[in-house]
Amino acid sequence: MLAVAACSSAPAATTDFFGPTIEPPRGLGKIQPGMSVAEAKKQVPALKEDHQGVREHLVLDSGVGDVKLEVRVDNGIVATVVAIVQGQSARDLLTKAWGQPQITRDSLGQPETTWASESTGWKVKLDCLERNCLVEYVPYHVLTSEFFGAHVVPPGDLANLKIGMKLAEARKLAPGPIDVRAGIPTGVDGVREFVAVDDKLGVVRAIYLNLPQHAENLITEAWGDGWAAIEPVGKNVLVWPDPTTRWRATLRDALGYSHDLAYDNYLPAADLFGEQPDVLDAVPVLGSSVEEVKKLFPTEITTVGRDLVLSLLPTEWERGATKINLDVASGHIRALSFSIPWKAHPEAKDELLAMFTHKWGQPRPTEEDDKKVLIFREGDPRVEIRDDTEHGTYQIEIRK
Fold first, then answer.
1. How far apart are CA 88 and CA 130, in angstroms?
2. For the sheet containing 111-117, what is the strand order?
3. Cα 15 versus chain centre, distance
4. Helix, strand, coil shares of the chain as percentages rounded to 5?
5. Residues in a beta bridge with 132
6. Measured between alpha carbons, how far is 368 from 260 in angstroms, rounded to an integer?
7. 19-43 average pLDDT score
8. What confidence tens digit (pLDDT) does each residue in 146-171 have?
9. Are residues 58 and 25 both part of a single domain?
10. What is the C-alpha R_g of the chain?
11. Which residues lie closer than 8 Å to 223 by C-beta, 6 or more apart?
12. Total domain count for the chain?
């Protein structure tokens, strides 16, 4: 249970303490979630370290006897600003100062008492416990379609990150969301940003936003209708691949009534294949020496026996990397083989076939081991594509 040590000589808080506008008191409006402790102390020099209790936090003298002001911290990063008010008087005081609150429901469907101001850019959430009331200050602006922008790109510093990026590098680019595992308020109502990390590998594992229920309509307004897809675990999702930015956004149901909007980079299949009939545009290595290929792809190549495996970004409907097997003969690349999935979005099957036909012309169908094979090129290079309906992929082989 929260407790506030009141100073007998200090008066109790009145409406004057909270002020006529919805914002943190005593200069704490200069503090923003995601800010470092050092920057917070620079903005509000009177902040002091307080090592009492289980939470890492800074404190500021409130000047009244029944309110404790805290800046709560997670891994050296500001997480939130709160006022802990002794007793049950906070709601009456805030109502007198700011008017009647909004009574809404949070993502779990629980009642939530709030005051918000677009002009000050702050929202207050009130949670009264048995002995105290917790007044939490959250940066606030109304969520609109403009927040998502015209193209699929993560907001703010998240756009500088990549899935698989080393944490040491990611921390320089977006220290707040990297270090605060519980997410950071973006300043837009109901939106928190998260970076999930793989502690074992020391890399970024996921980049996503947690959004309120009504956000789906706003995303559609910004980006158009999402493509319906099914994830490997069987969950229905909406996907927005943006070939201009090479970012892909996936909207999933999350806790309660909220949604998660996950961002990752992808390689559009059209860019992988390109227009040239005798070259795979993104991987122009057929006939090249092993040394030339390793120079061209210094970090994406692994050796498997005498052959090589090239790992590229996923295409539209793949979650893992696109792995291209490079068959080596006499020190040179003799063949490329890989798969392009369509199972997650079955409509993509015909779209991919149209793309192959545009690049190589009409195929000659044949059979091999009782399985249909499409021969798109007979010459150099030879292009064969098998429709693996069991796994929902096209199996592609290009060889000299």
1. 8
2. 48-50, 57-60, 67-74, 77-86, 132-139, 122-128, 111-117, 102-105
3. 40
4. 20, 40, 45
5. 86
6. 44
7. 95
8. 999 999 999 999 999 999 999 999 99
9. yes
10. 28
11. 148, 150, 151, 152, 240, 242, 249
12. 3
CA separation, residue 125 to residues 31, 74, 83, 112, 333 (Å) = 17, 20, 11, 7, 62
371 and 255 together in one domain: no
Tens of pLDDT along 195-222?
999 999 999 999 999 999 999 999 999 9
User: Is the domain of 114 the same as that of 163?
Assistant: no
Q: From CA 327, how far away is CA 378, in angstroms rounded?
A: 19
Q: How confident is the model at residue 13 (pLDDT cuts 50, 70, 90)?
A: very high
pLDDT at 54: 64
Virtual torsion, Cα 209, 213, 215, 220, nearest 10 deg: 120
Residue 2, in any domain of the structure: no
| Among 163, 89, 188, CA closest to 321 | 163
The token pair at 11 is 């008066």
Of the residues 115, 138, 161, which one is the last residue of a structural domain?
138
The answer to whether the bond into 381 is cis (omega within 30° of 0) is yes
- Averaged confidence pLDDT in the chain: 93
Calculate the CA 356 to chain-centre distance: 32
- Tell which of 83, 113, 138 closes a domain: 138
Contact 317, 345 (CB under 8 A): yes
Q: Report the SS3 class of residue 270.
A: helix
* Cβ-based neighbours of 386, under 8 Å, separated by 6 or more: 371, 372, 373, 374, 394, 395
DSSP secondary structure of 310-324: EEE---TT-SS-EEE
Q: Which two tokens stand for residue 182?
A: 């519980």
Question: If you ran DSSP here, which 8-state letter would residue 36 be given?
Answer: B
pLDDT at 55 over 80: no
**Identity at 261, one-letter amino acid code:** L
DSSP secondary structure string, 347-373?
THHHHHHHHHHHHH-S-EEEEETTEEE
pLDDT tens for each residue of 329-349: 999 999 999 999 999 999 999
Look up the domain containing 177 and give its range: 145-265
pLDDT digits (tens, 9 = 90+) for 230-272: 998 889 999 999 999 999 999 999 988 999 999 999 999 999 9
